[in-house]
Specification:
Length: about 240
């Protein structure tokens, strides 16, 4: 046992974090997609706190390299709306089941992906940033998967700007969510210590992503963003309907 978690569960979580961190280092998001469903299945008591701690730590790794193309204006508008969204997310955690929240978020994200693949290009402006920030605050706090609403907006930007802007957004957004859960007594020290123990997996995944960037064309990054968003929505739906 490691901090009350079976050793074999920790090993599986470590492996999924390497894959998730590599995906996020390449396209800007993906840690939650890979790790959240596995964590919820193997050790649901760790959700959403463990993934939020990791979502807070991962940007510290990625921003060492990707920090020069951050869209600070867009972050300002989206983060101002993320705070009230976090409050709503904390309320939803108390009122609704994880299953219901996962299904609702999955349907919303999947619909957004389908609409933006070919038909609709959502403008990145004050209104869309505020809406994405609020929705992300709700979903990130309630399910630990808050990246897709914001990532869909930035899918047409340069890969470096997608990665760096999302990194700052995840860092501050996760801090908001952790603060909200902490105020309501939904956090414990065990999840933080476990997240710190698993941090080397994030570093390893980021190293892998740097190698992948050499072989993955920049033109494929938008497709990767939409693929990750779609898969995260599908994972939430499957988890909510079948598990």
């Amino acid at each position: 046992m490691i901090l009350g978690v079976d050793a074999w569960v920790v090993v599986i979580l470590a492996a999924t974090l390497v894959v998730g961190a590599a995906t996020q280092g390449l396209v800007g998001l993906g840690l939650g997609l890979v790790a959240a469903p596995i964590t919820a299945l193997l050790e649901p008591a760790l959700m959403p706190a463990l993934l939020l701690w990791l979502a807070f730590l991962m940007p510290m790794v990625t921003l060492v390299r990707d920090h020069h193309r951050i869209d600070w204006r867009g972050l300002g508008w989206s983060l101002s709306a993320r705070l009230p969204g976090t409050v709503v997310g904390v309320v939803f955690v108390a009122w609704f089941s994880t299953r219901d929240l996962g299904i609702a978020v999955g349907l919303m994200v999947l619909l957004s992906v389908l609409l933006t693949v070919r038909a609709i290009r959502i403008p990145v402006n004050r209104r869309s940033l505020v809406i994405a920030g609020f929705v992300s605050g709700v979903t990130g706090t309630a399910t630990s998967i808050g990246g897709p609403p914001f990532a869909i907006l930035y899918q047409h930007r340069a890969p470096a700007q997608i990665r760096s802007t999302l990194a700052v957004y995840f860092l501050l957004g996760a801090a908001f969510s952790l603060l909200g859960l902490g105020v309501t007594g939904s956090l414990d020290a065990r999840t933080l210590v476990l997240a710190l123990l698993l941090t080397p997996c994030l570093v390893l995944g980021f190293v892998v992503s740097r190698l992948l960037r050499r072989v993955v064309p920049a033109s494929r990054i938008r497709g990767g963003v939409l693929l990750v968003c779609g898969l995260s929505a599908t994972a939430l739906l499957v988890k909510g309907l079948l598990l």
